[in-house]
UniProtKB/TrEMBL annotation:
This is WD repeat-containing protein 65. Residues 262-271 have a biased composition (Polar residues). Residues 850-967, 1003-1079, 1159-1193 form a coiled coil. Keywords: Coiled coil, WD repeat. PANTHER family: CILIA- AND FLAGELLA-ASSOCIATED PROTEIN 57. It comes from the Eukaryota. WD repeats lie at residues 412-453, 661-692.
């Protein structure tokens, strides 16, 4: 910060930055494992990848930056920039600390006087040496510096004499800080620094076809380099060892683009310097294939990442025990960052220009790849100011994937180009922005999060948000839309036919908004959705501002300023100038002072409709936007260079101060101030948003923040009394609420206890049934396990016996395997169909029982749920009333606390700012003294350099003579080595011919073994067909018997019920007759007395008819009284029949379970057999594949010999696998034979079980007939 006064009315401090300065390609580095550093505007941002937090410091060199480099281990950053001192231009290097005191400058020195182009820079592994490769006067200069002492260690010039045309990059050896690698077009050499000299090591490698543009050290002996035509080379001692083509689907012809000299030059240069660069490029340019160049290489553990054409990031892994690399993953940038919002037109608007269409179609280009020191994170910087990460970096990369993986955003999605619109809400911590990337974004400045984003198909020119932050107005190329802000997006309320409105502004109350329609201002109501006023300015309007009372407007064009009265729709003041008013407009809180900015760098103050004072910005800056602090009248001025000036007002109160802040790297487009004036947001044409925290020195700000607080001012005065009243009401409501809760609890507990008892009884009944079924199931399982173990033992014994017999017959049976596979497939389909039918029948029976009990359970659960819902509704009502009362009380208390805390915070910040300003003045004086000292040192060093250059030339000539002699001797050695290698290759060819003869013999032997196996497979398939037909017959018989059993069970159940009814009737009838007979015997023992008989008849009538005492007859204590011997015999016969029916039922159930178990066992065995057949088919496919491989190998041996020992080892392994295949096939054929015998045994057992099942059915039919006759006899007797 620079200033013309010592005390600033408003102090700004950057809090958060949304965006990246992407014009600088190599601008993304890791400071540590989880912190990434990148430039944004004229600031450096250190962002944590895990927590998303930011630390920011200013850097003056970012305004003219050429290149930057970060050393994560030493925690330093090197910034190469151009500095201008009067008419002279020089290149300086500055080093900043990133560890203890972040942003502290550790060293600055000049590396070159005069115009030059920085091609590449590098830092050694121990961060002691700093290397620079620069281009000037049609030749390159490589210099090595000891930056901690600002001392030049050595330098060398590289030109066409040394075979250099275009150089691309330099890097230090990862283990030696005196050893460098230099790459370029048809050039790859190594440089050694010794005793103040740089010696380029000679190389005999032929690199005429390689154009190296990027490289990285893989280990101290090898490096990986990328070329301009999509190739990656592994170099050993400057010679290409392995060549990898990273371009897929390459065709013959490729289009070419000019290759520029420097890849790290800045976007903004002076006129003389750009002319010099153009002259150098004309001399050194050549062609490069587009979309194929490997622009970046980053080595990782056991592999490397390479960036191909800026569109694909490819990961290669190293193959063990070799220097070959295999492609494992490929990553691309996502096609779009958000869903396209709803638009009324399917096509683009007619007003959309060609540039806008091309900008939408431009794809993102990946510029820089950064890998963390421990390789936990991999980030990618794109040309559209986005930072992506490789999300699956921790996954296994062993398997090659066909599709490309999509990168994911690390932080928020930033604007991709210039920001045209910016506005902030009042009632919510939200602000909106729009840009030339056709997006509308809603941000939260408290959480620093992007709440919503929508991408549209046409340009977005301007945007404004309602003070309540519930509505926005967006100006598109073809319309102006009023939208509601929803949770999941924006919904259009009304669209107005206004084209290309470049500014929109809501009034302070939000009841109106103004839209610029070329030279007309349209004032629209968002409530009535219609135009209220149309004001004709007469010229194309650039800026509009509302008055504080919302009854007027200020409008400004290129040379005209007008004040409007909306009540009369007339002009109250008009000012026409002879200079352009392109710098913005600002009004104070009382509408007394108006400040306008022009293109001549002046800000003018208008008071009482007259221009009173003028203020000019320093350093020939031109204002681009003005914003006012209402509390103390301070102006914030954004400029075309990206700086922000804080200017004290009014200008007439001398002395006035101008305070400068480094902010953006391009023109500032908007500045907004929050209503509480603790936050300032600025935007610019480079797509970066900056959030500034403010500290106001002296303020006249009142307590009336918003209209909501103003309306509730009277309510605040009576707040203590209302709080006491609400507390008493709250206690009464609590007591009433507790009493009601107790009543409801008692009733609810009674109903709940009754319902729970009922449900518990039903649950116990269901559990008992389930336990019985589980016990039966466990018993069946144990029986099955015993049978299975017995069968398995028999199977193993038979298997061992048959294996010995079938070793001789295996050759003949292999031919029949294919037919057996086809038959097994048919059997599997038939078995699955039958299995489904049997399972569906059993499931239907279980489902009926299950639905009956579930219905009862659901009825009880519904009743319980209804009672619970009633209770919850009552509780919610009381809780809502209680919460409403508590919230009102808490809100009032919190407001008083916040006022006290803000006053305390303001005083603390005031003290901190005083100490900060004192320190800054001291640091400024110290820097001035250091600058003088460095200038004196540089003049002394220039004389020393001239002396050293003469000495270096003499030493260089002597070293070149020695190097040429060494090169001659080395070439003689290489000739002898090549002759020895030719002799070795001849011996290897003879050995390979021998192996070819052996392989042909093995192939013939395998073809002879295949034919008998196929015949055996066909025979076994015929056997399977016969077995399936027999199995189908048995299953049909079983299904018929099952249906017969079901019918018999139903008839038996009906007969039992009828017997039980008749038995009850007979028992009642017998007991009644016995009682009547006893009464008759007792009453009519003496019939001779007529009076007594008459009395006895009356007594019997009164007892059995009038008094309905007949029931006493049915409830006698002794049922056997008066029974005859015939009745006793009938009861005995009935009991006998009941016991026999019960025995028949148990026998029937046991037979059914046995048949079911046998059926399931047969099905399981068939499934095992099918599984074995599938395995045989798979083994046969593998054998045929091996045969094809042998045929291919034989052809290749005939055409070209094997050139490595690995191929010989593979052939020997293939021969060794033939015996394993034959052994496995023998075992499979034995298992098939054993399964055939097991199926025959099961078939015999099934016939035996069916014979026993039919006998039991016949017995049941006889019993049913006897039961019918017995039933008839009982009915007749009754």
């Amino acid at each position: 910060m620079s200033t013309t006064n010592t005390v600033s009315p408003v102090t700004l401090q950057v809090q958060t930055i949304f965006g990246v300065r992407s014009k600088l390609e190599s601008s993304l580095f890791f400071a540590d494992e989880h912190t990434v550093i990148y430039p944004a505007g004229n600031q450096f941002v250190l962002a944590n990848v895990e927590t998303k937090s930011q630390r920011i410091f200013r850097c003056h060199e970012l305004e003219h930056i050429e290149a930057m480099l970060v050393h994560s281990d030493a925690a330093i950053i090197a910034v190469v920039a151009t500095a201008t001192h009067g008419d002279k231009e020089s290149t300086t290097v500055s080093f900043y600390d990133l560890h203890s005191t972040i942003g502290k400058k550790k060293r600055t020195f000049t590396i070159h006087d005069g115009p030059t182009t920085i091609t590449s820079i590098a830092l050694s592994h121990d961060a002691k040496h700093f290397a620079v490769l620069e281009c000037g006067n049609r030749e390159y200069t490589l210099s090595i510096w000891q930056w901690q002492k600002s001392r030049l260690l050595a330098s060398i010039k590289l030109g066409q004499v040394e075979g250099v045309t275009v150089l691309s990059q330099i890097l230090f050896d990862p283990s030696d800080h005196n050893y460098l690698s230099i790459i370029g077009r048809r050039y790859c050499r190594f440089a050694r620094h010794t005793e103040g000299n740089i010696r380029i090591q000679p190389s005999s490698a032929k690199l005429d076809q390689y154009d190296f543009i990027s490289h990285a050290w893989y280990d101290p002996t090898r490096l990986i380099a990328g070329t301009s035509n999509g190739q990656v080379c592994v170099l050993f001692n400057g010679d290409v060892q392995i060549l990898i083509d990273v371009v897929e689907g390459r065709e013959g012809a490729t289009t070419t683009l000019p290759r520029t000299l420097s890849t790290m030059s800045s976007a903004t240069k002076s006129g003389a310097r750009s002319a010099l660069h153009q002259h150098q490029q004309e001399h050194l340019d050549t062609s490069r294939p587009s979309g194929e160049e490997v622009t970046s290489i980053n080595t990782v553990n056991k592999g490397f990442y390479c960036l191909v054409g800026g569109k694909r990031l490819v990961h290669y892994s190293k193959i063990a025990d070799s220097w070959d690399f295999a492609k494992t993953r490929e990553y691309v940038v996502p096609a779009s960052e958000g869903g396209t919002a709803r638009s009324l037109d399917d096509e683009l608007a007619p007003s959309q220009t060609l540039n806008d269409k091309q900008q939408m179609n431009n794809e993102q280009v990946m510029w820089k790849v950064a890998v963390s020191p421990k390789e936990e994170h991999t980030l990618v910087l794109t040309s559209k100011q986005q930072i992506y990460s490789v999300s699956d970096i921790a996954k296994d990369h062993s398997a090659e994937s066909g599709e490309a993986f999509v990168l994911e955003l690390v932080f928020n999605s930033y604007h991709q180009s210039s920001i045209r619109g910016l506005d902030i809400g009042v009632h919510k911590p939200l602000f909106v922005s729009s840009g030339e990337d056709h997006t509308v974004r809603l941000w939260n400045y408290e959480t620093n999060a992007l709440e919503q984003m929508r991408l549209y198909t046409e340009p977005v020119y301007a945007i404004s948000i309602h003070p309540n932050a519930l509505q926005i107005v967006v100006a598109f190329a073809s319309r102006v839309s009023l939208m509601n802000i929803l949770v999941d997006g924006f919904s259009t309320v009304k669209e107005f036919a206004i084209r290309a409105a470049h500014q929109i502004k809501f009034s302070h109350g939000g009841q109106l908004f103004a839209v610029i329609d070329s030279d007309i201002i349209q004032v629209i109501s968002p409530l009535y959705l219609k135009v209220f006023h149309r004001l004709n300015h007469g010229q194309t309007i650039k800026t509009i501002v509302w008055k504080q009372n919302d009854l007027g407007l200020y409008s400004q064009s290129s040379n005209c300023f007008i004040i409007w009265n909306l009540e009369t729709q007339s002009r109250t003041y008009e000012l026409k100038t002879n200079y352009r008013l392109d710098g913005g407009l600002a009004i104070d809180k009382d509408d007394r002072f108006v400040y306008i900015a022009s293109d001549d760098g002046l800000i003018r103050e208008i008071q009482n409709e007259k221009i009173k004072y003028e203020v000019k910005l320093p350093n020939d800056d031109k204002p681009s936007y003005l914003e006012m602090f209402e509390s103390n009248g301070t102006i914030l001025c954004g400029t075309h260079r990206g700086s922000i000036y804080v200017i004290r007002t009014p200008f007439g109160n001398a002395p006035h101060g101008i305070f400068h802040y480094l902010a953006h790297s391009a023109r500032v487009t908007h500045i907004v101030v929050a209503f509480h004036e603790e936050l300032v947001i600025s935007s610019c044409e480079d797509g970066v948003l900056m959030l500034w925290g403010t500290h106001i020195k002296s303020t006249n700000k009142t307590d009336k923040w918003t209209s909501v607080v103003l309306q509730n001012q009277k309510r605040f005065l009576s707040l203590p009394q209302k709080i006491r009243e609400l507390q008493t009401e709250e206690e009464e409501l609590k007591r009433d609420h507790e009493y009601r809760l107790q009543q409801m609890e008692t009733t609810y507990l009674g109903d709940l206890q009754r319902r729970t008892d009922m449900s518990e009884n039903e649950r116990r009944h269901h559990e008992n049934q389930i336990d019985i079924q589980l016990s039966e199931k466990e018993k069946e399982h144990r029986d099955f396990e015993t049978k299975h173990t017995h069968m398995r033992e028999n199977f193993d014994s038979e298997k061992h016996r048959i294996e010995k017999e079938d070793r001789e017959r295996m050759g003949r049976e292999f031919h029949k395997e294919e037919e057996l596979i086809h038959l097994s497939q048919k059997m599997m389909e038939d078995n699955e169909f039958r299995l489904k039918s049997t399972e569906e029948a059993g499931d239907n029976e279980v489902r009926d029982v299950k639905e009956f009990y579930q219905g009862k359970i659901k009825e009880t659960e519904k009743e319980l749920a209804s009672l619970k819902i009633l209770n919850k509704d009552n509780l919610k009502k009381f809780e809502i009333e209680k919460q409403n009362i508590e919230h009102d009380v808490e809100d009032e208390q919190l407001k008083h606390k916040l006022e006290y805390e803000e006053e305390k915070k303001r005083l603390l910040e005031h003290n901190a700012q005083l100490t900060k300003t004192f320190k800054e003045t001291l640091e400024h004086q110290v820097h001035a003294l250091e600058a003088k000292k460095t200038e004196q040192n540089t003049t002394a060093q220039t004389y020393k350099k001239k002396i050293q250059e003469h000495n270096n030339r003499v030493q260089g000539m002597t070293q070149e003579i020695a190097a040429l002699k060494n090169e001659i001797t080395e070439r003689n050695h290489t000739v002898h080595d090549k002759l020895d290698r030719i002799n070795d290759l001849g011996l290897k060819n003879q050995e390979l011919e021998k192996f070819q003869y052996v392989l042909n013999y093995k192939i013939d032997e395998l073809t002879r073994l295949i034919k008998p196996r196929e015949e055996e497979i066909a025979r076994m398939q015929n056997q399977l067909l016969k077995m399936t037909s027999e199995r189908e017959k048995k299953e049909n018989e079983l299904s018929q018997n099952r249906f017969v059993n079901v019918g018999q069970r139903r008839t038996l159940h009906a007969i039992e019920e009828q017997i039980e009814r008749e038995r009850r009737k007979r028992k009642e009838y017998d007991s009644a007759m016995r009682r009547i007979k006893n009464d008759i015997l007792t009453e009519f023992s003496d019939v001779s007395d007529p009076k007594r008989t008459k009395d006895a008849v009356g007594h019997l009538y009164q007892k059995h008819v009038e008094n309905d005492n007949a029931r006493s007859i049915y409830t006698s204590s002794d049922p056997n009284d008066g029974m005859s011997e015939e009745a006793i015999a009938q009861d005995r016969q009935r009991m006998f029949l009941e016991r026999t029916t019960a025995n028949l039922k148990t026998k029937l159930s046991s037979d059914l379970s046995a048949t079911k178990a046998n059926r399931m066992r047969i099905m399981n065995e068939n499934s095992l057999l099918l599984q074995e057949l599938n395995n045989l088919r798979e083994e046969l496919r593998i054998v045929r594949g091996r045969l094809q491989d042998y045929e291919v190998a034989r052809q290749t041996f005939g055409e070209r010999g094997v050139h490595s020992t690995e191929a010989l080892i593979q052939t020997l392994n293939a021969d060794a696998g033939n015996y394993a295949i034959r052994h496995r096939d023998n075992e499979l054929m034995k298992e098939i034979h054993n399964n055939q015998q097991e199926i025959l045994r099961l078939r015999q057992r099934l016939t035996r079980t069916q014979a026993g099942y039919k006998a039991s059915d016949q017995f049941l039919m006889d019993v049913d007939e006897n039961d019918d006759t017995a039933n008839v006899s009982i009915i007749k007797l009754a």
